[in-house]
Design a protein that fits this description.
Order of helices and strands: EHEHEHEHEHHEEHEHEEHEHEHHHH
Helix content: 40-55%
CATH architecture of the largest domain: 3-Layer(aba) Sandwich
Strand content: 5-15%
Number of domains: 2
C-alpha cells in the first residue's frame, strides 16, 4: 500500500511520524511524509520519501493578541491547504492518507475529491470528553458537562481558523461549498477512525469516547541503530553524576540570555550538573559543571539524566516518561499546560512552573524537589514500565492492514 503521512507544525509535531513511517515501511508499505520544507532531513534519515508542504508558521511573524493570532493561524492554514493539495497531486497513486491534527481538517476535503481513504493519526486528544477539559485550554477540569462543552467550543474555534482555507481548497478541488464545521460533523457521523499516539500511562482513554477513537501509545522519532551521542557530551556524562537537561524546544525564542543565566544559577544552587539544549531560545553557558548542546536524540540522552526541565510539549513529555526520569515542567502555550499537568498527576513531576512566572528561586525549588525526593523517580519509572508494554506503531500497522483487507 502507498501511504502518505501529512503533518505540520514544529519539530515535535513532525518527528514522531518518522518512526511511525519507518514502521509502516518495514511492514512492506511505500511511505511518504508531507511536512513543511525544514523537515526534509528528518524524513530522509528515516528512509521516507519527502513531499514539502509550502507553508511556514514563522512566515506570519511574532503575533500578539488573540485576534492577531487567529488571523495568522488562518493565513497559515490557507497556505497549508495549497501545499497539501500539491503534495497529493505529486502522488496520484496514493492508497491511504494518514492525517495529523493539523492536516485532517484539510485532508478530509482531499479525500472527498480523490476518493483516497484516510485515517487520523493524532498526537493530542481533540474529541470532546467529560473526563478532562480540551488540551488546548489548559489543565483545569470544568466538570463533566463543562469539559464536554469546552471541547465542542474548542472544535468550533478550530473550524473558524480553517474556514478560509477550506473554502479556497474546495474551490480548487472543484467541490461544492461545504463549511469546515459541516465537514467535521460529516466525519463524526461516519465514524472516521482516529488513532492517538500518546500513552495511556499519561492519559487513559476517555470513558465516553466512541469506538473509532483509539489510543495506541506514543510514536517515537526514527533513530538509526548506529546513532551515537556527540563525543563531548559523552565525555561530560562520564565526568560526574547524571546531569539535568534544560531545554525549551521550539519555544521561548528571544529569551535565551535570561533563561541561560536563570538555569545555570538554579542548577548550581541545587548542586546539580547541567546540560543546556540551545533550541529556539538559544540557550548557552560555559563551565566545568554545564555543557551546551544542539539537537540530540532524546531516546539516547534522557535515560542518562537525573531529570529534565522542559516546556511540556507532547513529545518531550512522553520521552521523559519513557526514560523513567522526573520532569520539571515550564509550560509556555497551547497544549503544554495540559501535558505538564498530566506529568504532575501521575507523580512524575512537581507542580508546573508556568513560563511567565519562572524565576531562579522557583526553578531551584522545583529541581531540588524533583531530584531529591525519590517519589518522582519511582512514578516516572512506573510510567516507563507501562509504556514499554504498548506496541504503538504496531497498532497503526495492524489498523492499516485491516483497512487494506
Amino acid at each position: 500500500m502507498r501511504i502518505l503521512i501529512a503533518t505540520a507544525g514544529s519539530r515535535g509535531d513532525v518527528a514522531p511520524y518518522t518512526g511511525l513511517g519507518a514502521a509502516l515501511r518495514d511492514a512492506g508499505h511505500e511511505v511518504a511524509l508531507a511536512a513543511t520544507a525544514s523537515f526534509a532531513r528528518l524524513a530522509e534519515e528515516a528512509g521516507l520519501e519527502f513531499r514539502p508542504l509550502l507553508a511556514d508558521p514563522r512566515a506570519h511573524g511574532d503575533v500578539q493578541g488573540k485576534s492577531a493570532l487567529l488571523r495568522a493561524a488562518a493565513a497559515f492554514t490557507t497556505d497549508l491547504g495549497e501545499g497539501f493539495a500539491d503534495a497529493v497531486d505529486k502522488g496520484k497513486d496514493t492508497d491511504l492518507l494518514l492525517l495529523s491534527t493539523t492536516t485532517a481538517p484539510l485532508g478530509w476535503h482531499v479525500t472527498e475529491a480523490t476518493g483516497i481513504p484516510s485515517m487520523g493519526v493524532y498526537l493530542q486528544p481533540t474529541a470532546p470528553t467529560g473526563d478532562f477539559a480540551p488540551a488546548v485550554m489548559g489543565a483545569r477540569s470544568l466538570g463533566r458537562f463543562g469539559n464536554r462543552a469546552a471541547g465542542r467550543f474548542a472544535l468550533r474555534m478550530t473550524d473558524r481558523v480553517y474556514g478560509p482555507a477550506v473554502a479556497q481548497l474546495r474551490e480548487r478541488l472543484q467541490l461544492p461549498t461545504l463549511t469546515a464545521t459541516q465537514m467535521r460533523r460529516r466525519q463524526d457521523q461516519a465514524g472516521w477512525p482516529v488513532l492517538h499516539g500518546f500513552s495511556t500511562a499519561l492519559v487513559p482513554r476517555p470513558s465516553d469516547w466512541k469506538a473509532p477513537l483509539t489510543v495506541t501509545g506514543s510514536w517515537w522519532p526514527y533513530l538509526d541503530a548506529s546513532r551515537r551521542l556527540p563525543a563531548d557530551l559523552e565525555d561530560f556524562l562520564a565526568a560526574g553524576p547524571p546531569p539535568v537537561l534544560v531545554g525549551f524546544g521550539s519555544m521561548a525564542a528571544g529569551h535565551g540570555e535570561r533563561l541561560s543565566e536563570l538555569a545555570v544559577h538554579a542548577l548550581r544552587r541545587a548542586g546539580l550538573r547541567g546540560v543546556l539544549q540551545s533550541g529556539s531560545a538559544g540557550l548557552v553557558a560555559d563551565g566545568d559543571d554545564v555543557l551546551t548542546i544542539g539537537e540530540v536524540p532524546h531516546g539516547l540522552l534522557f535515560p542518562r539524566l537525573a531529570a529534565v526541565v522542559h516546556h511540556a510539549g507532547a513529545g518531550t513529555t512522553a520521552a521523559a516518561a519513557r526514560a523513567g526520569i522526573p520532569s520539571v515542567t515550564v509550560p509556555v502555550a497551547a497544549d503544554q499546560p495540559f501535558w505538564a499537568a498530566r506529568l504532575a498527576a501521575i507523580g512524575a513531576a512537581p507542580a508546573p512552573v508556568p513560563f511567565r512566572s519562572l524565576t531562579a528561586d522557583r526553578l531551584t525549588s522545583a529541581l531540588t524537589t524533583a531530584v531529591r525526593e525519590q517519589s518522582y523517580a519511582k512514578a516516572a519509572i512506573a510510567a516507563a514500565r507501562h509504556m514499554a508494554t504498548e506496541d504503538a506503531a504496531g497498532s497503526v500497522v495492524t489498523a492499516v492492514r485491516r483497512l487494506a483487507r
